[in-house]
Amino acid sequence: MEITRKAYSKSSAIQKKKKTFWKAAKNQKMLYAMSLPFVIWVFVFNYLPVWGWTMAFQNFTPGISFFEQEWVGLDHFIALFQDERFYLTLRNTLAMSFLGLLFGFTIPIIFAILLNEVRHSLFKRTIQTITYLPHFVSWVVVAGIVTKMLSTDGGVVNDILMGMGIIDQPFQFMAKENWFWGIVTVSDIWKEMGWNAIIFLAAIAGLDPQLYEAAKVDGANRFRRMWHITLPGIRPTILVVLILNIGHLIQIGFEKQMLLGNSLVVDYSEVLELYALNYGIGLGEFSYGTAIGIFNSVVSIFLLFLANGIFKRYSNQSVM
Amino acid sequence: MKKGIRKLSFKNHVFDIINYSFLIMVMVVTIYPFLNVLAISLNESVDTIRGGIYLWPREFTLNNYFEISKYDNLITGFSNSVLRTVIGTVLGVFIQAMVAFTLSRPDFQGRKFVSTVIVLTMYFSGGLIPGYMLIRDLGLMNSFWVYILPGLISAFNIIIIRSFMDGLPMSLQESAKMDGANDFTIFYKIILPLCKPVLATIALFIAVGQWNQWFDTYLFNSMNESLTTLQYELMKILDNTSMGGGQDANLMRSTNEQQNNLVSPESIKMAITMVTVVPIIVVYPLVQRYFIQGMTLGAVKQ
User: What are the ABC transmembrane type-1 domain coordinates in residue numbering (chain A) (predicted)?
Assistant: First the structure.
């Protein structure tokens, strides 16, 4: 194949180039057969839905052709911006996103650094094995577990709080609006902390041990070594993960909110995607639901570019 | 000077003690809920209502598991979940590895095009409603294939496999080519066996994703009981307050009528939770040594 490439670059005449291209293409027909069907596949399942965005500008009626649809311009967006519920769900989405970013991002870093200070390798491995486990369990199970742990009859959290005399009677965590954001954030940390620490642990493992030796000789204590060597050492990794997290900021998903939420806390649990789901599929307002989805994507792309821009300015690097 | 060193090592000890205690606490908080669920699922269900079951069943019984095994939807759900996990994983790993192989070939003309089309999918999505409409228009609603087809190609996984393949020596392929092997044979006979570690990681990712998925059942197949999945059944049973309520009551009633003894919903929930969690706990240590490698590889390349 080296020969093919050389021949390709040497040929100056377009005619010859074309000929070599088709000749090579014929030689590579198996490679095409192995990949092109899946390009079509991706086109159908990933690109085609974007065409569905046109629904947001129509009064979409299922069953009639694209050309027969009634076009309404930005009406659905105007209706969206006039709906109080929209602002409520936007608030919930942003609040839970920021909480998730703030804690879901920093706590794994702290956890990785602390874990790195453990010298017993068996202990370290055991902790890793155990803390990775919840990542592999579904949100359905996690929601069930969280509900069970916080329940008023026999939930361990209430039992402990009552045993310590902090509260007199069981506290209904799941029924309190003000607690919902916190419960979602903590559940997420419980589920993903260990898993999200993997990349930081790998980055720490890649640091030069001589740096630590030198710092030790200079009399730097553990905290100073963590602060002046470990943290700056994994700074590039931290930044990349941060940018990616910011890009996903508003796409927090809706699984946790849908599974942990209930009718008592709906004003705090409904996020944009659930709002889209309820309107779009629940009520059959496909156009309105699509408009919500588009808004969600646009905000998310805007945040990604913003974060990347800031990142570029400070580090002359880009993650995109 | 001496005093300084002693002070330092004393501080070190204090730090170690605090650090170890903290990490042990993390461990307990992570593992306790699972042990608690297990204990309750193995405890006699009337006795459970009295409360106070923490780490160990008070009156050991397997009755809760017998009870849930009589629930038809759960059996259907279980077999559908196994089926989608096996089919989805085998097909997914094979196809993603195949596409990754073509992208790892520097001489492949279509490389840039194929790679761009696939990688771009990581940065956008049509969203919930258009995706739903597409599945509907393709006639995939009320069909088992909605579990397999839409997510068959994952850009993230392909990138991970491809970066692993990039690390393999080209000379292997060249000598096979000399012997007259075609590209598919090279992929199937030479590259695939060498990629075992990374494929194990990807298989784990896909299998876990398939096993844990419930939303596609909820969205596309909730009308068709023969296509239900285990996670969806669990979701309905856990979700007492809203739509799942009726279903839950049905289960309780049917099991009570058959057995004529009271099985508390609590025990049923915990037993079903265990049934969905145990397969993961069994499989995951087997592939654990592979996935960290895969994770870090993917993250770096991203």
Answer: 90-307
